[in-house]
Amino acid sequence: MKRFEGLKRIESEETPWDILIIGGGSTGLGSALDAVSRGFRTLLIEQDDFGKGTSSRSTKLIHGGVRYLRQGNVSLVSESLAERGWLVNSLPNLVQPQLFLIPTFSFWETWYYRIGLWMYDRLAGALGLNSSKRCNRDQALELIPTLKPDRLSGGVVYWDGLFDDARLCIEIADTVWKNGGLALNYVRAESLLKEDGKVFGVSAVDSLSGSRFDLEAKVVIQATGIFSDKIRIKDSNKSTSIIQASRGSHIVMDGSFLPNGNAIMVPKTSDGRLLFLVPWHGKVIAGTTDIPDENICLEPKATDEEIDFIIENAAPYLAKTLTREDVSSAFSGLRPLVTPPKSEGNTASISRDHYIEVSESGLITIAGGKWTTFRKMGEDAIDTAIQSGGLEDRPSRSQSMKFSGDLSAEDSSHRFARKVSNADTLQSWIEEDPKLGERIHERLDYSWAEVLWAIREELAESLEDVLARRTRSLFLDASASLDIAPSIAQFMAEELGRDSDWEEQSIAAFNEIADAFRVNASD
After folding, report:
1. Helices (H), 315-447
2. Which of these, 436, 470, 434, lies nearest to 455 by C-alpha position?
3. What is the DSSP string of 62-101?
4. In terms of C-beta density within 10 A (0-12 exposed, 13-18 middle, 19 or more buried), how is residue 194 classed?
5. Among the CATH numbers 3.50.50.60, 3.20.20.70, 3.30.1300.10, 3.30.43.10, which is that of 3-54+167-242+339-400?
6. Are strands 444-447 and 439-441 parallel, antiparallel or unpaired?
7. Is the pTM of this model over 0.85?
8. What is the pLDDT of residues 175-199, one digit of tens each?
């Protein structure tokens, strides 16, 4: 993906796009993926960077949803498990099976979860990962040596998927490009283009250059997550709010808390939620919280209360003392929960946990849902676009698409697996310049070659793009990311042809963002 090529194509297009998608998170990218799978001329624009908001701040789980099973939402669990199986098979380098242990403290508790997870396995069918099973106290401690043994009776083992959310965003965007579509970051939709009350495109601006262009399309879909109401109100001032944001925060700890690479699921926290402790890129992520938040923004911050809540609810399960000093980073995301309007003159439908609306102008809104079902959400959005926009009825082929960097399971252990099939290119760069093979920081497992690839091929335009999403450095170790930021800025400036003022401004902007990821030690 090369930005100048994408902008040149936008400027040269003389006929309307079939489908124009606003929003570069999981839902928008899933919609673009499905659209190109059907052969539609597809354009996606994102006001900031792909996955900048909620879609890079998940708990990193591709899952059926154990809590939805407890709620009796069998249809959602079945759909999610099918999508989980598809993802594990399609992208073994980014989505992998993960063992979870639910620690139990009585005979009856063990069998309660065992029966529930037996049902979970049955719903997955042929797409299941591994069978759940109960284990005794010694087996539980063998799986999680750092588990606190006090009162421990045993546990129940089950399997779900673990993934890298921001990396998957880039993988999908690249696949859209390679299948004839276009996905561009830093292109902001400023207003809707209308004729006789019907939407026929958007007026947009390139946030980096200031260039403006009118983008015409047969169908416009907005998949802007927490910002959905903003565009709905632009479309019609009669629109009522459908989004209720919920803040989910996480902490990141040293990998020694889960040395065997197995995960823990705490079935009930003090507020009745699930809490996950999962191994991720050599660290451990613990979360999440669920706090209503009316402050809709791109940079939500985990509060001290939330950090303490996670520590207090994780610590009773760990033999090793967990304190704020053990937390290398903390991050927060806003989940766009949907409350559908009850009395509007719109064509609306609710499909399980996501919501699709077609306004009187023809604008399609898709909101809600979760990462696991991003492809199915995209399929539903494009089905709606065909029905409401008069497009040719073509079947979805997104389930059978070959991703841009397909790897076999055997290949996925390669050092550069996160760069998928581009490992050979990275290696050739390192042979030409051995310094590119060095780590960017002693505590970060990323090379300078990977930074260079992000700039040249993955539309990385800012320090945050590189350190938060193309690599996951900021999420893994906020202090190390702040240490290396000046060097990355200088490297990017040389590659992009930027001056020293750009370097200084980039460092200042990144420091402000990164400060929210740092956790102050306890007094």
Report:
1. 374-389, 423-432
2. 470
3. E---HHHHHTT-HHHHHHHHHHHHHHHHH-TTTEEEEEEE
4. middle
5. 3.50.50.60
6. antiparallel
7. yes
8. 999 999 999 999 999 999 999 999 9
